[in-house]
Amino acid sequence: MSxxxxxxxxxxxxxxxxxxxxxxxxxxxGGAEAFLDGSSVIIVIGGLFAALLVNFNFSxxxxxxxxxxxxxxxxxxxxxxxxxxxxxxxxxxxREGLLxxxxxxxxxxxxxxxxxILLSVDGIExxxxxxxxxxxxxxxxxxxxxxxxxxxxxxxxxxxxxxxGTLIGLVLMLESLTDPETLGPKMAVALLTTLYGTxxxxxxxxxxxxxxxxxxDKEIFSKQIIIExxxxxxxxxxxxxxxxxxxxxxxxxxxxIPEKAQxxxxxEDAANEAQG
Length: 276
What we know:
The chain is mostly helical and 276 residues long. 75% of the residues lie in helices and 2% in strands. It starts with a strand and ends with a helix.
């Protein structure tokens, strides 16, 4: 289930606020206007867009809005609930058989879980299920990479276009060396494009791409748990053994010790039962 990630807009807003705060506290009266220049904005934004058009095709460019939206969303995947789901499926499969799991899937929203369980119900070999589901994970990683590549490239191009704008401003400044009074203002305008490009890259594009990488890593991690859970359910593993196996994916902070902890001897008996 996806929810709005408030940290992304909060971080961007806070970053811009810090820049504005630094300008306002160090600039004199009316000095803040020196940091606003329309031509510098056009050079950076327009040049950045042009470079992306050269680098990507039209279908990839259309993904930009969708990819940016993903950076403002967060997916709540409770790994402990995910483990308990497979423990419940394992208990029912051992009690009623794999075919009984089809009724359970009506309450499952994750299509990856549904696919794995249906493959199990159809009698597909465990190795084949792993290959199929791992292939889907690889495809997901590739799609995510292609999507965020636009954001990553924008983070690379923005400072470069800022430097291009600065070089243009310096050339224009050198043409007016005979008028020393204009050198300072023209130098300030020349440097603004570098400021704009660097700010966009390091506050918007690159952090956004980093967040998308983290989201992909978390999604792939949860899907690895799902694969292990599906294989455990299909092979008829003891639910307690399966729970212990899947709990190995949890960090020490995420692990919750139940009030009635199972004794090691009971776990060993359950493991012997599963092997027998």
